[in-house]
Amino acid sequence: LSLKFGDIGDLKDLVIRFLLTTSYYQMSVENWFSLHRLQLLYNHSIQATFNATRIYAPASYSYHCEHVSSLQRYDALLIPSSANDLSKLWEVTFTDFQIQGFNIQEGHFAYAKDCASFFSPAILMGLVMSLILLLVLAYALHMLIYLKSLDRHYECKASSAYFSQMKDNDMEDEKEPLRSTGNESYELRNQQFCKIYI
């Protein structure tokens, strides 16, 4: 697949050539196409060659990627073919790149296989958070299952206590002076405490 741009500045007869291959894979039971190599031609000769990596899709689909580039910040899907080649002097980046080499119908791209990874950082963080929430939920359910029910058997006994009972109509504390000592002391009476048996 060749894109011919003609003369652009000092570049005479600029052509970008995509070398596509198709292969049949028994695992997927269908043909796949892949971008094998990218060549830059100008001044009527090949000036730069890049090997393409991970640019492939089923033959009935197209391939789409936000950036196909030779730069590391865009994941470098295009790699210079050799150290001696002039490719090292070039920085190639395609933005909103989409290609389909075979089975083109009515001049439109087929459904696109996107280059976005299924495990991007955002998706991985979502999976980790979901796992943490599931662990918390499992622990809570475990605690609820093994929680013993309370048997409501109460035994109430009269005893002296430190807090007085409050009556609705009479707000005075029930107290009685003790006569055993010279100092004035008080004891609260008519108090009850309860024992709960589990």
Automatic annotation (TrEMBL):
Superkingdom of source: Eukaryota
> Start and end of every V-type proton ATPase subunit S1 luminal domain?
1-102
Q: Which Pfam families match?
A: Ac45-VOA1_TM, VAS1_LD
Q: What InterPro entries does the record point to?
A: Ac45_acc_su (IPR008388), VAS1/VOA1_TM (IPR046756), VAS1_LD (IPR046755)
Membrane topology annotation: Single-pass membrane protein
Q: Name one GO molecular function term.
A: ATPase activator activity
Q: Which GO terms describe its cellular component?
A: bounding membrane of organelle; cytoplasmic vesicle membrane; endomembrane system; proton-transporting V-type ATPase complex
Q: What are the transmembrane regions? A: 123-147
Q: Does the keyword Zinc-finger apply?
A: no
Domain V-type proton ATPase subunit S1/VOA1 transmembrane, residue spans: 117-154
Q: Where in the cell is it found?
A: Membrane
Question: What are the alphabetically sorted keywords of the record?
Answer: Membrane, Transmembrane, Transmembrane helix
Is Membrane among this UniProt entry's keywords?
yes
Q: Which GO terms describe its biological process?
A: regulation of cellular pH
Q: Hey, which family's this protein in?
A: Belongs to the vacuolar ATPase subunit S1 family.
Q: What is the designated name of this protein?
A: V-type proton ATPase subunit S1-like
Lineage of origin: Eukaryota, Metazoa, Chordata, Craniata, Vertebrata
